[in-house]
Structure formats: structure tokens, C-alpha cells
Amino acid sequence: MSDFNETIEVKYTADNLVDVDYYIEQARADRAAYIASLFRNLFFKKSEKKGKARVSYNLRQSAAH
After folding, report:
1. C-alpha closest to that of 23 among 35, 34, 31, 15
2. Tell me, what's the pLDDT at 11?
3. Is 22 within 8 Å of 8 (Cβ atoms)?
4. What is the residue-averaged pLDDT of the chain?
5. C-alpha angle with apex 38: 35 to 44, nearest 5 degrees?
6. Phi, psi angles (nearest 5°) of residue 35
7. Residue 46 parent element (H or E)
8. How far is residue 9 from each of residues 22, 23, 43, measured CA to CA in Å?
9. Predicted TM-score of the model (pTM)
10. In whole angstroms, what is the distance from residue 59 CA to residue 62 CA?
């Protein structure tokens, strides 16, 4: 996750307070990108022949109860 050598720039509002909204939006964007990458890795496979993505149908779905 975080590297101890990583520097973090603190964002401030016009009132010289820490901009919490910025960090909330950044977390949402990071989470959305992570979920999108999981989705791509789960449902799409890259073709070795043409470099195109194709839908993977080898997933098993549990029966609905």
C-alpha cells in the first residue's frame, strides 16, 4: 500500500484548513479505478494473437437461492 519514503502533499482550503473533500474524492477515484481493474481482469482476457480483449465465459455462477 503506502511506501514509507512516499511524500504526501497536503491540500488546504481557502480558509487554510485541510481540504477533506479533496481526499474523499481522491479515495473514491482510487477505489473506482481498483474496482474497474478487478472487473477487467475477471471478465476480459487479452488475446495473444491480436492484442484485443475478449469476454471470458469460463466463470461459474452459483445457483440462486
Report:
1. 31
2. 92
3. no
4. 78
5. 130
6. -65, -40
7. strand 44-46
8. 12, 11, 36
9. 0.54
10. 10
